[in-house]
């Protein structure tokens, strides 16, 4: 089969396109596995960091390996115990086991709990682009489950893939009577407004603008997709007493770009623990999304997509033989949405 194989860690040119990569065999499918004909895979920051070898400490891969986590496609075969999807169904999900073959290949075998059925109306490019981003947003928004119609939310970094999912999920909760303020770059003003958010330019007078919009009131919750102490302070400034800040970014601003070592992990856990401790003494209530829950939440996300209550913006699509270019764009481009790889011909 056709596949993009990572031969050694480093720049995108280490991804090699193959037309004769060994195909997973239907006869070797375990009872709880699904064989998927992959339509689309996505390139998120986690993918290019894995390609660089930056996350070997937490996501140890042996090379050569087909990388790629998110996918959409159709079911080619199912194991004996699989009941929730059938051959021919459109599906999406995550292949997040670094020991197994990833999704930049025409076929992939995935544990059935990480696969969900899609309504045929859901575009496969969006479905392939969304899993990790939507799961991260959902992990945070679930912590904000007290939000009700008419409430106010601040989403820090609302135009990124995780942030835009959080904007839509929060809008679904607070309704037209509510308010979702989303910070982003000026090039994303129109996009954020089209989602129904109230835009604030992060490069302008961010605090002054939020203050003006709130008119002296506070927000009921904050979702942070950017991270770092700057986001924590912003959340603290505008949060009402008792409100929660859910963060996909955590203490490290923009996810960090360097190799994850012991120091990074200490900074991450130390930061989260410190902020959690402060909340015991009247500080901001803080939750960091750690560990996604595809097994229980992919179905919920599929339902949101079916009802067009959740959509994903595609930055650019590349064919499988240009997966290296897709990685380069995802790592170095000024993105407007997710970079996707069209795996199927
Ligand atoms: N905790 C988890 O389980 C989990 C899972 C997935 C992702 N993440 C993390 O979530 C973060 C976002 O991921 P993503 O896939 O959404 O990335 P993305 O699509 O690249 O989006 C990042 C967005 O942040 C914006 N941004 C940067 N600095 C900002 C600021 N000061 N204020 C407002 N917006 C700002 C960027 O805008 P410009 O382009 O205009 O600068 C961009 O729109 C990453 O750090 C990622 O590592 C965490």
UniProtKB/TrEMBL annotation:
Residue span(s) of domain Enoyl reductase (ER): 10-341
Region Disordered, annotated ranges: 1-26
Pfam family, one: ADH_zinc_N_2
Residue spans crossing the bilayer: none
SUPFAM superfamilies: GroES-like (SSF50129), NAD(P)-binding Rossmann-fold domains (SSF51735)
Record-level Gene Ontology MF annotations: oxidoreductase activity
Composition skew (Basic and acidic residues), residue ranges: 16-26
Superkingdom assignment: Eukaryota
Entries under CDD domains matching the protein: MDR_like_2
Name of protein: Enoyl reductase (ER) domain-containing protein
Biological source species: Palpitomonas bilix
Phylogenetic lineage: Eukaryota, Eukaryota incertae sedis
